[in-house]
Amino acid sequence: MTTQAGTEGAFGGPPRGPDPRAARSRAAALAAAQELLVEQGWSAVTHVAVAARSGIGRTTLYRHWPDAASLIHDAIAQRMSVVRPEPTGELRGDLVRELDALRVLLHEPVSERGMRAVIERAAVDPAFTKLKEALYRAGSDGFRSILEGARKRGELVADLDIDLAIDQLAGPLMFRRLLAERTFSTEYVHAVVESFLRLYATQGSGR
């Protein structure tokens, strides 16, 4: 009798889960990359430096992350996944929570340094150009889902340009933090959302 790989353990035992050693190694490597990014900037995130700090072999690091850009990507993506809220279907609240999650990321050292590094390097390094595109897609997916759902429900104007709407929501936060280097609170997030809804919410949406 044959069994499908990955569905049963040895001798028909219970299914095998993820290897905890591999999970610990990945966590240690990403933690080291995040620390180096904050302490010394993107140029310090090398396989040699991450291996020295984490104790993970360079061969293992290269197998999972063939270049520094992929290491930085996963270091930022890990932080993004922690703060991302689940949409509820209530337009105003969903926009506030999604935008506030971006506010948290912009004030968190790893993700802020990472975003600055990606923007800086994207103009001269194709690997970072791809990284910037991947992070943009990941960062905008939540907004896109909320806006498209609200448009279908008739809560936003039918001709809403989704890409422009994302820019109008996220753009002020990115500008204020990454260019003006100013901090801001949730009150600013609420102000941005209210301005957006005054422009695009329909009369029947409870704006």
TrEMBL record:
Residues 1-23 are annotated as: Disordered. The keyword Transcription regulation applies. PANTHER family: HTH-TYPE TRANSCRIPTIONAL REGULATOR RUTR (PTHR30055), TETR-FAMILY TRANSCRIPTIONAL REGULATOR (PTHR30055:SF148). Residues 23-83 form the HTH tetR-type domain. Gene3D superfamilies: Homeodomain-like, Tetracycline Repressor, domain 2. Keywords: DNA-binding, Transcription, Transcription regulation. This is TetR/AcrR family transcriptional regulator. SUPFAM superfamilies: Homeodomain-like, Tetracyclin repressor-like, C-terminal domain. Pfam families: TetR_C_11, TetR_N. The keyword DNA-binding applies. Residues 46-65 bind DNA.
